[in-house]
Amino acid sequence: MANVREKYKKEFEDRARALVSQMTLEEKVSQMINKTPEIEHLGIKEYDWWNEALHGVARAGVATVFPQAIALGATFDTTLVERIADVISTEARAKYNASQRVKDYKGYKGLTFWSPNVNIFRDPRWGRGHETYGEDPYLTARVGVAFINGLQGYDEKYLKSAGCAKHFAVHSGPEGIRSSFNAKVGQRDLWETYLPAFEACVKEAQVEGVMGAYNRTNDEPCCGSPTLLKGILRDKWGFDGYVTSDCGAIAYFHDYHKVTNEPVESVKLAVENTCDLNCGCMYQHAVNAVKSGLLDEKYVDECLVRLFTTRMKLGEFDESTPWDNIPYSVVACPEHRALALESAKKSIVLLKNNGALPLDKKKIKSIGVIGPNANNRVALQGNYHGTATRYVTVLEGIQDFCEKEGIRVYFSDGCDLIRPSVEWYENDRLDEVREICRECDVVIGVFGLDETLEGEEMAGGLGMQGDKPDLKFPGIQNQIMKEISSNAKKSILVSLTGSAMDLSQQDKDYDAIIQGWYPGEKGGEAIAKAIFGEYSFEGKLPITFYKSTEDVPNFLDYSMKGRTYRYIETEPLYPFGYGLSYNDYVVEAKLEGNMENGFEIDATVENKGAYDGSEVVQVYIKALRENAPNFSLKAFERVELKAREKKAVKIRLNSEAFALYNEAGKLELTKGVYEVYVGNRQPDSRTSQLLPTEIKKFTIEI
C-alpha cells in the first residue's frame, strides 16, 4: 500500500511536538503509560492505548466474532482478510463514537488495536499459535499486510484505526518461561523466518504500532533491544510509528532477565531504544531517571512526539473524521454476521474423505453428534474475542439443518475435554456413545481443545501454562473417538483446535476428517452446511500436521532445522498448503521472463466439479543446493470459480523470490539451479499421495 497519509505526516508531527513542548516532565511521563490521564489545560483527554481486535473487536462487549487468526490464515485469501479487518474497524469506530459521547475512556474503548500477531507458528505445542497466521513467513506477511490495510483504511489524512504488529521479535513459546527466556537464533533464521512478516507490515502496510516481545532475543530483552528496535526497526526499515512494550515486560528486565538492576535502569534501556509506551507502570520511574541524570529528557520527548502523532492521525484532536457518524447499529449487523459465516466456510479444511462426504440428506434418517466440543461455545471463539449476539455450535448447526429435513439428531458429550468424567463417574458417557452409534446412520465426533487449554500464559489448562505438552488429545478423548469409529456405521471427525494434533490413528479409523479451527460465531453453521454439501470445502493448512511429538525438535530450540514444511526432515501426516474439496481442480501454467526483469506465470484454473467454489494457486521455489529450504511458498492466489468454469490468473515473481539469506543474515541471489512449482498444493511426496493433482515444474538456471 502506498503511504496515502504521507503529505499530512509532518503536520501531525509538528503539532505533536508543539503539544509536548508545553508539558511538564511529570505530565510527559504520565502519557507514556497505557492508561493515560487527562491533561485538561492542554485539551488532552484520558486515553487507554490497550485494545484488541485479533479476529473482531475484543473485550468490549458485543461484536462480530470472526474465525480465529489461524483460521484466517487457512483461507489463503488476502481480499477476504482485508474485508474482515475493515468490518472490525467499522465496528470499532461505532463503539468508539458511542463511548466518546458519554465520555467513557476506560480500557478497550480506544482505536489503537494491538493486532495482528505475526509471529511464526514454529512449534505446534505453542499455546498462542492460534493467534498467528501459521508457520510460513510469506503467508504470514501477506495476510498480516491485508489485515492492517483493512484496519487502518485508505483515507488520505486519518487512520480509521491503528494496527500493531506483535510480538517483535522471535517469539513463539514457551509460555511458562517467556518472562525470562532467551531465544537464541542464528542470523539466517532470524532474517529468513522470523522477521519477514514484520518487515512487510512496516514497509508495505505502514503499520502504526509495533509491540515488543516478552523474551530476550540473542541476550537482548526485546522491548529494550538496540538491535531489534533501533538497528532493524527504526534505522534499517525506517519505522516512525509508536512502539509499545508487552504488558509488564519492562519490569521483567530486572525481575527475570536480570539485564538491569532496578526500575530506573530498565526504563532507561527501554526509552533510549525507542520503546515509546509502557503497558504497565514501570515508566512512572522515568521522572526519577531524568531528574537523577540517568536518562536524557530528549528521549522522553521523542517518545511522546511519536505517541501523540498516532493519536492525531486517529483524529482525536480534530473536530471531525470521516467515521464520526458510523452508528452503533452496524455492530454485529446481519451483513457482518454473514461475513463471519463466509469466512468460516473458507477457512475449514477437509483433511480426509473416503467418499463419506457430502452426506446425502435423502438417505439419512438419524445422525449422532458426539463429543466435548460439539456444543462448546468456547471452542468457537479462540482467545482475544468479543461477545457474539448468537453462537452456532456444531451441534446447533446440524440440528438447525436436520430439523428442516426431518432427520433425527442424537447428542452426547461423550466425555470432558480433559477430565475422565462429565459428571462424576469415570467414563460416564460410554454406554450413551455406544447406543447412539448403534442407533444412527452416521456419527459426527467433535473433539479437540479450546482457549482454556491452549493460549496465553495461564494456570491450569494442560499443565504447560498455555502450551501443549504433546500433540495428543487430552483426557479420554482418544478412547471415545475410537469407540465411535469402531461402532458407527459411518464416522466423521471434526477437530476444533487452534493447532496441529496427532491425528494418525483417526486418519486410519475415520471415513472423513475436518479441521474446523476455532471458527467464530457462525462456525457450527458453516461446518454443518459443508458436511451436507451445501458448499464445498475451501481451506488450506497454514501449518504442518506432524505424525507425533517425536517428529518435532526441542521446544526451546529456535533453529528452524526440522521445523515447518520448509525444513521438516520426516514425513508429515498432513502437509502445509493441503486441503481437499468436493471439486477436482486442474491448474495449467506457463512461465516466462528472466531474473533481471522478473518472471510472469500465466496460469489457468479449471473447476471440473459440480460445486461453485475457489482454489488456491500456490507457487513454490526450491534452490538446488545444500542447506536450502525444502520448498518455500513465494506466491499464491485464490481464484473463485463457478462449477465447470475456467479462469486465467497472472502471478509475478521478481528476483528476490529466488534469493536466500546466508549465515550472516545477508540476502543473496547465488548462481545455480532453481525449481519453480505451480499448482494447487505443495510439491512434496506426502501431498502427492493425499492429493495427486499435477504440478507444473519449471527449471531456471542462473
How big is the Rg? 25 Å
Distance between the termini: 31 Å
- DSSP, total strands: 23
Total number of domains: 3
Proportion of β residues? 15-25%
Describe the structure.
This protein has 702 residues and is of the alpha/beta class. The chain has 3 domains: 6-329, TIM Barrel; 348-543, 3-Layer(aba) Sandwich (Rossmann fold); 585-701, Immunoglobulin-like. The chain is 30% helix and 17% strand. It has 21 helices and 23 strands. The strands form 7 sheets. A 6-stranded mixed beta sheet has the order 9-14-13-12-10-11, sandwiched between helices. The protein has a 4-stranded antiparallel beta sheet with strand order 18-17-22-23, with no helix packed on it. The radius of gyration is 25 Å and the shape is globular. 56% of the residues are buried. The model has no long low-confidence stretch (mean pLDDT 97).
Question: What is shown here, in short?
Answer:
With 702 residues, the protein is of the alpha/beta class.
Main attributes of the structure:
702 residues; alpha/beta; TIM Barrel; Rossmann fold; Immunoglobulin-like; 3 domains; 4-stranded antiparallel sheet; 21 helices; globular
Topology at a glance:
Layout: H1 6-20, H2 25-30, E1 35-36, E2 47-48, H3 69-74, H4 78-101, H5 137-152, E3 164-168, E4 182-183, H6 187-194, H7 196-203, E5 209-212, E6 216-217, E7 220-221, H8 226-236, E8 242-244, H9 249-257, H10 263-272, H11 286-291, H12 297-313, H13 334-347, E9 349-353, E10 366-370, H14 378-381, H15 394-405, E11 408-412, H16 430-439, E12 442-448, H17 477-487, E13 491-496, H18 504-509, E14 512-515, H19 523-531, H20 564-567, E15 585-594, E16 598-607, E17 613-623, E18 632-641, E19 646-653, E20 660-661, E21 667-668, E22 673-679, H21 685-690, E23 696-701
Parallel strand pairs: 3-5, 4-6, 5-8, 10-11, 10-12, 12-13, 13-14
Antiparallel strand pairs: 1-2, 6-7, 9-14, 15-16, 16-19, 17-18, 17-22, 20-21, 22-23
Helix pairs in contact: 1-12, 4-5, 4-13, 5-7, 9-10, 13-19, 15-19, 16-17
